[in-house]
Amino acid sequence: MNLYSEFWVALKELLAENDGGTSASVFSNERVTADVPDLTSRQELFEILSRCITVQGDKTLALKLGQSLQVMSLGLLGLAVANCQTVTQVSRLLVRHSPLRSSGARLRLVDRGDTLKLSFFERIPPIPKYPFLAHELFFSSVISATRQLAMAPLDGIYLELVGTGHSSAETYADLIGVPVKKNCDINQLVMPKALTEAPLMPTGSYRPRELHMRLYEGLLKKSAPEAGFSGTVRSIFLRCIGQPVDASIVAAQLNMSERTLRRRLDDEKTSLREIRDNLFKQIACRYLESTNLSVAEIGEMLGYNEYANFRRTFLRWTGKSPASYRQSKQHPQLPKP
Known about the structure:
Helix content is 53%, strand content 8%. The chain starts with a helix and ends in an 8-residue tail after the last helix. The radius of gyration is 21 Å and the shape is globular. Helix 7 (169-176) links the parallel strand 3 and strand 4. It has 337 residues and is of the alpha+beta class. It folds into two domains: 3-196, H-NOX domain; 227-329, Homeodomain-like (Arc Repressor Mutant, subunit A, Orthogonal Bundle), CATH 1.10.10.
């Protein structure tokens, strides 16, 4: 599932919580009522969000949606963010890869010595009727992600907005949890360096976070956008790297039977094993090419506790042993973990 569709799922869950699902008419379009929606652009996302606002009469919906998003639900981007070591790293990652960027929407990160300023500028809003929609969703989701990962309160953060916004400053502050200043020169989140350089909450994994952040960002750059049902299954494998995952676990996470899971994958001419093998092959190759981790450590990260099992599987994937592959691809100088 691509990131626009992940936003859609969160929006639908938010509406269901707010009104028990009475806003189902918003999703009358057949394309967005599928189990796994396939929104292909940020414009589609904002058009659906604007319809929801119109039906509900709630101009704070973008702020609420941003607050409801969970970091680990955002596919490769979420995994990369979760493995960042500081808010500064998170901010740089979002400037490069946020799905809310576009050719007309610019994100910029500026270091002002004692503060870090993350700005959002868009000359022509995606929905003129709701001109503040895009930056409200962006900043609310950034603040929510920071709160989920930080080891300390978000003291000293505040948001500056151009114009008056869709709500009062008090409403903004109540919903996103930081002070808001209106009628400023630029839309930007101002963060003290004491917060942005502080260590973030560990992800609960023993694996090197810097290596994983680089891995997931590399996959973001090189991979085609996840799409369709198989993309959703791939996201589950990504979130569970190093843990045993079988058909029963994937089906449970998707709230469906194993039979339905296999039928949906058959419809896309793929299988759990093919999705898993393609993903793990890509990850293993990237680690072998770009780190000094031992073959055994890489195998263990992917859930292969026995070196021989990983070596045999990698040989099946590539026709080469891990050591031979590394020798053929690796640069002379490699970063140490």
